[in-house]
């Protein structure tokens, strides 16, 4: 599944469209030693991973959840899924116009 988060934190991270991946099927083939992690202060719960060599935002690789979000922009190949939702649309900047028909939520969907 793919979704786009418009919250200020994800936008500032430089990656707000995520592909949700089952941890059982995720394989990092190279560069694991180049991953760095940013652990935010409360109330933000999500630790973000990025490449310390090029700065690319990767996603939440430190998560212990069964399914984790991977930043779509770091994938070299087409993930074969398309955007299904937009969350935190209430925080979307005025200059950005959503250009697809995916479902929109003003905050995080439950």
Number of helices: 1
The strands making up the biggest β-sheet line up spatially as 6-2-1-7-8
Q: How many distinct beta strands?
A: 8
State the secondary-structure class.
Answer: mainly beta
Distance between the termini: 16 Å
* Proportion of residues in extended strands: 25-35%
Order of helices and strands: EHEEEEEEE
Radius of gyration: 14 Å
Largest sheet: 5 strands, mixed
Shape: globular
Bin the helical content.
under 10%
What is the typical, i.e. mean, pLDDT? 88
Low-confidence stretches: none
Question: In words, what does this structure look like?
Answer:
With 110 residues, the protein is mainly beta. 5% of the residues lie in helices and 30% in strands. It contains one helix and eight strands; from the N terminus they run βαβββββββ. The protein has one helix at 8-13, and strands spanning 2-5, 17-22, 35-38, 48-51, 57-59, 67-71, 83-87, 103-104. The strands form two sheets. The protein has a five-stranded mixed β-sheet, with no helix packed on it. A three-stranded antiparallel β-sheet has the order 3-4-5, with no helix packed on it. β4 (48-51) and β5 form a beta hairpin. The mean pLDDT is 88.
